[in-house]
Amino acid sequence: MADVTILFDRLRWEEKELYEKGRELGLDIQLLDVKQQPLELTNVKRNTEIAETVLQRTISHYRGLYYSAVLENYGHLVINSFAASLICGNKLLTTLLLAKNGIPTPRTYAAFSMESALKVIDKLGYPAVLKPIVGSWGRMIAKINDREQAESILETREMLTDPQQQIYYIQEYVKRPPRDIRGIVVNGRVVAAIYRYQPEDDWRTNIARGGKAEQIKVDGELEDLMIKAANVVNAKVVGVDAMETEGGYVIHELNNNLEFHGAYEATKVDIAGEIMKYVKELVRR
Stretch 69-74: mean pLDDT, rounded? Predict the structure, then answer.
């Protein structure tokens, strides 16, 4: 039986690096494609084909979420847990917890019809930002510059068959430098941090969309905020995204299944090694 199972649905650089770093630490690592391994729901005994300690690394939010739920029901330890993945993977739930725990975050509304969404956008003022509650890489995020554009985008969302697209997550447009900050938190410690600069032709900073990364050293205030944000969702390996504003830092998103190749290239910090050192500690227990 392997010491650790790494779940994936597409084998990226990150999963390969985690596998190699784990082996360097003396761990017996199993790579498991969740698309090829069904799970029985009515047998609650631990699945002996999968290690007791599991690192969840699927690209698909829903595959990873429900695979984690089943494995935890069997008695496996999953990093990150179903509960942490559920919250981090849902911007609405993340915002609720950040606000409840006093962590500064952009002013945000949820609206449940096109009419109420328009009222919220008018209230926040233009530009405003409309995001899907589940999604990554900056997909389907819109900067809304005027009422006409708001009506057009909302009408399109109304026609989509996914009911989640009719839950409107509307956020103030934060005045910031042309960058945001990604901190990588492993077991309550910021192990690396980068600026993510937006490309010339886009206001979004996602590296997957062409954003550029640069190493930074976070100050004590931001480090404390990032660690607190990770702790309130009980995420042990998480990307915490922050923005610089005139009023101070705001935390705007958490990523429970982060890609870190860009951060590694910018910082040369052994992020995979830091993650697998933490995983090894769990295996010892």
Answer: 95
Structural domains present in the chain: 4-79 (3.40.50.20), 108-172 (3.30.1490.20), 176-276 (3.30.470.20)
Calculate the CA dihedral of residues 272, 277, 283, 285 and round it to 10 degrees.
-150
Scanning the chain, the segments in alpha helix (DSSP H) are 13-24, 61-74, 82-88, 91-100, 114-124, 147-159, 220-232, 261-267, 271-284
At 205, the pLDDT band (50, 70, 90 cuts) reads low
Quote the CA–CA distance of 254 and 266 in Å, as a whole number.
20
Using CB atoms within 10 Å of the CB of residue 239, give its burial: 0 to 12 exposed, 13 to 18 middle, 19+ buried. buried
**Amino acid at position 9, single letter:** D
| Contact between 88 and 238 (Cβ < 8 Å) | yes
Calculate helix-pair angle for 271-284, 13-24, nearest 10 degrees. Answer: 50
Across the beta sheet with 237-245, the strand order is 212-215, 190-197, 179-186, 237-245, 248-255
Contact 94, 254 (CB under 8 A): yes
Mean pLDDT of 179-184: 95
pLDDT per residue as tens digits for the range 79-115:
999 999 999 999 999 999 999 999 999 999 999 999 9
Q: According to the model, what pLDDT value does residue 22 have?
A: 98
Q: Work out the pLDDT band at 1, boundaries 50, 70, 90.
A: confident
CA–CA dist 22, 270 (Å, integer):
12
Strand bridging mode 77-79 / 53-56: parallel
